[in-house]
Amino acid sequence: MRRFPSRLAVAGTAVALAVGLTTPTAAQAAAKPAVRAGALKWATLGDSYTAGLIAAAGALTEPQDGCARTTGSYPELIRRELGPLVDLHNPSCSGATTLTVYADQQIPQGRPLPPLGTDPNAPYPAVPPQLDAVDPTADVVTVQVGGNDLGFAQILKDCITLGATNLGLGTPCKDKYDAQLPGRFAQLRNNYGTMLGALQQQAPKARVITVGYPHLFPEDAGRCRYGDLLQFGTFTLGDLAWARTNILEPLNLAIQQVSSAQQDTYVDLYPASAGHSVCDSDHWIDGLLSSVVPIEYAVVHPNAEGQAFMAAQVESTVLNS
User: Fold this and answer.
1) Domain-embedded: residue 50
2) CA nearest neighbour of 81 among 93, 92, 73, 91
3) pLDDT per residue over 42-67, tens digit each?
4) Which of 103, 147, 160, 273 has the fewest CB atoms within 10 Å of its CB?
């Protein structure tokens, strides 16, 4: 897996080495390092892109509450790299919306077995709003959410179904959803601004840092192969281009603009992830599947390299903002 080093990671390594040099016994060396006094208090909030969700992003972390946080997700990469430099809390939850970040309970779905089946360990009890896990004395709060407010998962499913029905021709998904998007974006902007205000109220001294989404769709939809389950399956090329320009790019713009209006910092993952979409050979986002044999579902989520990329971008912003 490609490494994306950051100055924070280098600092964390130095501290870990210093701790190791002063550790007198093997038992102490095996123990989890204690958080250092004055460590950065950091809460990482978000949806499945933060939580990790898929097997390509690692094993599920404990306790398994249905939020499908994984060991290779970017918060957990940051936690391991920085060790005692940070006191990191990760209440991110797959399926989260802006409302379940700041106001509502969420019923986690776990790691469903497609096609959108049920996690064998479900049902899970409701989890509280992620805001509840934010320490009022936190130094940093990062949040990556918004795709589920637009209903991206359902749109994705319908684009696949409609693309198959139309034999890969036209823009059937655009035809179904385009007129609904302005209203969905208006609601997202309103909820996102309210969420940022709630986070600032919960942790008044914290830097609130919002995180956008990386390239999922290539700049040229023609790179994608119709029917390829390692990519977008039966999405039509017209709908792939529409999803990039009318959903993903406006979503990032909305997050950036609302963050700016609130004087919060925005992490723009989009430019540096160009050329690493689902349909690129060096892809940081897996398609509908990560693997055919053995079958591993991904449903368009970051793989290990994608999570490492996001970890480096978020760390760098936290250090320099």
Assistant:
1) yes
2) 73
3) 999 999 999 999 999 999 999 999 99
4) 103
Q: Which residue has the tokens 């940081």?
A: 284
Q: Strand locations in 275-317, DSSP E?
A: 285-286, 289-291, 296-297, 301-302
Give alpha helix (H) positions in 91-169: 98-102, 152-165
> Hey, is 308 helix, strand or coil?
helix
Q: Cα Rg for the chain, rounded, in angstroms?
A: 20
Q: How many domains does the chain have?
A: 1
Interval 222-276: pLDDT, tens: 999 999 999 999 999 999 999 999 999 999 999 999 999 999 999 999 999 999 9
Nearest to 44 by CA among 205, 208, 258, 227: 208
The residue whose two tokens read 């990560």 is 290
Going along 55-169, which residue ranges are E strands? 86-89, 140-144
| SS3 of residue 259 by DSSP | helix
Alpha-carbon distances of 68 from 96, 218, 242, 309, rounded to whole Å: 11, 27, 30, 20
Instruction: Give the Cβ contact number of residue 123 at 10 Å.
Output: 12
Assigned domain for 2 exists: no
Q: In the structure encoding, which two tokens stand for residue 197, read together? A: 């205000």
User: Tokens at residue 141, please?
Assistant: 């709060």
Which residue range is the domain that position 110 belongs to?
7-320
pLDDT tier for residue 4 given thresholds of 50, 70 and 90: low
What is the distance of C-alpha 161 from the center of its chain?
A: 25
Distance between CA atoms of 192 and 100, rounded to whole angstroms?
A: 11
H-helix segments, 244-303: 249-261
Residue 284: both structure tokens together: 């940081």
Phi, psi for residue 265 in degrees, rounded to 5: -90, 140
